[in-house]
């Protein structure tokens, strides 16, 4: 007898980024559930070093949107959250906290990803859709100023949430043979990569009518400096000096 997948697993396996939303608002009750999902996320050493800033001011949203490649869905989404690594409160509690070690930054980044994914999975299970906004790091210092973030904190990414007004296809993911290994790392298998590139190319043709595959996407993203302003900003905020 075949086992049915759980509703949670169905939600995870059907994830798509949603960039068009209906005007419908998200109820206070659902927002409370989403914040509770964030609060219950796993956290390293129980440090709970993430703060969420809910952006309700329209002018502020537009200012953040301008910092994030003018992605219209930041303005159109019913809700927009900014997830921030926040060790400021820890420094207040324990002034001798040594927050300038690289590991502290990693702890914060990992916790942010875990918490945000809790929120998005919960939102999708309730009929919402969403998309992460890493582009706010294009102008990370300006966004930090807009949010009045103190030392030992910084914005990691945003999350648009709302009721979907589109039904995009599932984006092909790397096959298991290219990302899940047993005991030791395995070399890249070119024939499998070529097959995956074809799948991704077909996806982008269907979704956006653009000629793009996974290899070219990597080249476009990584074959140039990747936000070189991030390191000096993080060091200014008191991170990653050791």
UniProtKB/TrEMBL annotation:
The keyword Cell division does not apply. CDD domains: NfsA-like. Keywords: Flavoprotein, FMN, NADP, Oxidoreductase. Pfam families: Nitroreductase. One of its GO terms (molecular function) is oxidoreductase activity. InterPro entries: Flavin_OxRdtase_Frp, Nitroreductase, Nitroreductase-like. It comes from the Bacteria. Residues 12-163 form the Nitroreductase domain. Belongs to the flavin oxidoreductase frp family. This is Oxygen-insensitive NADPH nitroreductase. It comes from Conservatibacter flavescens.
């Amino acid at each position: 007898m075949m086992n049915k997948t759980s509703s949670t697993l169905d939600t995870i396996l059907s994830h798509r980024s949603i960039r068009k939303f209906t005007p419908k608002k998200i109820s206070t009750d659902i927002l409370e559930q989403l914040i509770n999902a964030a609060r219950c996320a796993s956290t390293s050493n129980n440090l709970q070093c993430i703060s969420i800033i809910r952006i309700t001011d329209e002018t502020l949203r537009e200012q953040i949107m301008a910092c994030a490649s003018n992605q219209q869905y930041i303005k159109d989404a019913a809700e927009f959250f900014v997830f921030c690594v926040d060790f400021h409160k820890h420094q207040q509690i324990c002034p001798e906290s040594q927050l300038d070690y690289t590991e502290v930054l990693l702890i914060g980044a990992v916790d942010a990803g875990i918490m945000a994914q809790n929120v998005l999975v919960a939102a999708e299970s309730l009929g919402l859709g969403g998309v992460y906004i890493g582009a706010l790091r294009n102008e990370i210092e300006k966004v930090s100023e807009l949010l009045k973030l103190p030392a030992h904190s910084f914005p990691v990414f945003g999350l648009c949430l709302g009721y979907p007004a589109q039904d995009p296809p599932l984006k092909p993911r790397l096959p298991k043979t290219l990302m899940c290994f047993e005991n030791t790392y395995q070399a890249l298998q070119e024939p499998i990569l070529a097959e995956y590139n074809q799948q991704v190319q077909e996806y982008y043709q269907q979704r956006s009518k653009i000629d793009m595959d996974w290899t070219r996407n990597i080249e476009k993203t990584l074959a140039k400096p990747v936000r070189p302003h991030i390191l000096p900003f993080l060091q200014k905020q008191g991170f990653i000096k050791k």
